[in-house]
Amino acid sequence: MRTGDFRPVRRFAGTSAPPRKALVSSTSTSPLPGSTTPATTPGTVLIRSAADVSDLVNSGTARGRHAKMIVVIALGGIFLDAYDLSSLAYGLPDITEQFGLSSAMAGTVTASISVGSLVGALVGGWLVDRIGRYRVFMANMLFFVVTALVCALAQDVWTLIAARFVMGIGVGMDIPVAIAFLAEFSRLRGKGSKGSRTAAWSPAWYSATSGCYLVIMLLYFLLPDAQLGWLWRFTVGFGAVPALLVLLLRRRYMNESPTWAAEQGDLEGAAKILRQAYDVDARVADDAPAQAPAPARPGLAAYARLFAPPYRTRTIQSVSVGLAETFGYNAVAFGLPIIIATLMTQGPLTTIASSFALNLLFALTGGLLGIRWASTRGAWPMMTLGFAIQFVAITVLGLIGEPSGTAVVTAGILMLGAFMFAQGFGPGAHIMSYASLGFPTSMRGVSIGFNQAVLRLGSTLTLFFFPILSSGLGTHVYWVILAAPVLGLIALLVKRWEPVGFDADAEERNRLQAAASDGLVSAAHGPGRQVDRN
User: Fold this and answer.
1) Nearest Cα to 508, choosing from 314, 273, 316?
2) Do the Cβ atoms of 285 and 46 come closer than 8 Å?
3) What pLDDT digit, counting tens, does each position of 222-281 carry?
4) 431, 325 Cβ separation under 8 angstroms
5) Secondary structure (3-state) at 116
6) How many CA atoms lie within 13 A of 228 on its CB side?
């Protein structure tokens, strides 16, 4: 089947043989042939299982403004994550001067938020699958509001480090739940697909980094020269404003994921969400099980399932490409002020303006194209092309070395732009596709959380060591950064796995049905045969 086409697959509840009669939109008041369900009103959609809810969302039949608003709010969370992570990028030299920091302590300040996000990702990913998307989504906004203000008012470096660490916990918790919402409130293929909307996290991220540099630029002109050392405080504190806005929108519009609710056995709750969020008159059929079986609440051992078949290979590949992406991104994108000011010896205004332009013109543009290309070209080709362009860009920067003259500086900045453009449509857009779309609803939070925890470990090391490496190696640091696209290309070429358009929930149902059938056959033939339920 070509990407972008959709053919509904009908499955009968409980077996893989005959077509299922569950997902039906009644167009008359007559009962369905062979069904015990009484007559329903025209347009009513009957659901009998979690599979029906998943198929309804995946098919694109369920659409509504409310659901689109939930997607926008989820992207708003990503916006805040990126803003808070990048808000200290320009201000680090001033922080170093104000608090009298060594290079190691400066690295600790920048890395503290990544350490917090590592913890938040592990805990948040588990909670997302255990207690639901909605509860985690509503709770973590408080992290952003409070910690942004504490950071802005910090009077010593340890208060700043502690506040950035707690802020990181909020960031780490937010990403698994936001990506889960993007995947679970979207159709499987076509316009507005899971692949397109998970890729949308990339332009949301770059909108935030561009917005952060815009705030810095405006404050640069508004503040007196004597107060420019406080620029970082205003920038960080401003993060509380969009956080409050997103929190208010979440309280008004957010719903639980209907597929997660159905997976927990709450078909009535899933039907209610479909009515509220999708404007679909969904009702639980009278012949549906009185109480759908609910799975056991996942414990921390759920992370071990990521390394059982068939998820082991997907987990390793998603982590590998993610580490490559985060190492290159943190070194180049978060290091832009250091690269432009130090390695390219430019002044403050040029540094701010160049960082803003690179994020807005190159990274954001690439991210928007990534959304458009996700459903037509897929994740694997775009990731591979992106890493290849980054390899060329970093190689050229390494060969340029320390630029001299306007033309060479311009060429170097354009290479940074090429790197970030490729990041936007390639690795930056699709690391979330690899971390989320190859895994079913029951373990999507855990898969994203684990992926983000490993990536945050890499991010922490990069943010800690990059200031040290850049000051010690100078322009030779580019040859270290070159390892990022090389690792990414190797991880992709080892196995061509395409997550976009893949129905992981259907795969999981078929696997469980096959295991159940195998168990019945084994019981009929006597003991001694073990069934692999992994």
Assistant:
1) 314
2) yes
3) 878 777 777 888 888 888 888 888 878 877 777 788 888 888 888 888 888 888 777 778
4) yes
5) helix
6) 11
DSSP 8-class letter at 36: -
H-type helices in 185-266, by residue range?
194-199, 201-222, 231-238, 240-253, 258-263
**Which amino acid appears at position 150 of this protein?**
V
Give the CA radius of gyration of the chain: 25
> For the purposes of burial, counting CB atoms within 10 Å of the CB of 395, is it exposed (0-12), middle (13-18) or buried (19 or more)?
middle
Give the pLDDT confidence of 264-303 residue by residue, as tens digits. Answer: 888 888 888 888 777 778 888 887 776 555 555 665 677 8
Amino acid at 430: H
Q: For residues 182 and 187, what is the distance between their CA atoms, to the nearest angstrom?
A: 10
Residues 269, 284: Cα–Cα separation, whole Å: 10
**Contact present, 407 and 154 (Cβ < 8 Å):** no
Predicted TM-score (pTM) of the model is 0.75
Q: Are 446 and 129 in contact (CB under 8 A)?
A: yes
Beta strands in 242-336 (DSSP E): 282-284
Q: For residues 147 and 122, give the distance between their C-alpha atoms in angstroms, rounded to a whole number.
A: 20
Query: Apex CA 8: angle with CA 40 and CA 16, to 5°?
Result: 90
